[in-house]
Amino acid sequence: MGDSKLTSVKVNEELFEEFKVLCVRTKFSLQKLVDRSIHLYLTDEDFRKKLHNHTNLSLSGSQA
Questions:
Q1: Tens-place pLDDT, residues 28-57
Q2: 3, 13, 44, 61: most buried, per Cβ within 10 A?
Q3: CA pair distance 52, 5, nearest whole angstrom
Q4: What whole-number percentage of the chain has pLDDT above 70?
Q5: DSSP 12
Q6: How far is 39 from 21, CA to CA, in rounded Å?
Q7: Closest among 34, 32, 27 to 11, alpha carbons compared
Q8: What is the DSSP letter of 59?
Q9: Which residues are within 8 A (CB) of 23 and not within 5 positions of it... i.e. 6 or more apart?
Q10: Half-sphere exposure of 35 toward its Cβ, with a 13 Å CA cutoff?
Q11: Alpha-carbon distance 45 to 27, whole Å?
Q12: What per-residue confidence (pLDDT) applies to 64?
């Protein structure tokens, strides 16, 4: 992969804890999620719109 940029962000603690558990089960990583999400954000208008409109960050009763 090309050059990488080190960044720091604060994330919702509850969401991140659930994400870490799922990552172990699925052998996925935050790095993969970020890289792929940025790529889709830049190249897929529907994905970008979905992210802009998604505001419910609750795990209980979450939207699909």
A1: 999 999 999 999 999 999 999 999 999 999
A2: 44
A3: 24
A4: 92
A5: -
A6: 24
A7: 34
A8: S
A9: 29, 30
A10: 11
A11: 28
A12: 47
33 versus 1: the higher-pLDDT residue is 33
Whether the CB-CB separation of 15 and 59 falls below 8 Å is answered with yes
Structure tokens given for 8: 């720091």
| Entry field: residues in the chain | 64
Three-class DSSP category at 51: helix
The full DSSP string for 13-34 is: HHHHHHHHHHHHHHT--HHHHH
Q: Which two tokens stand for residue 28?
A: 């996925």
**The tokens 């960044």 sit on which residue?**
7
The DSSP secondary-structure symbol of 47 reads H
Q: How far separated are the first and last CA of the chain, in Å rounded?
A: 31
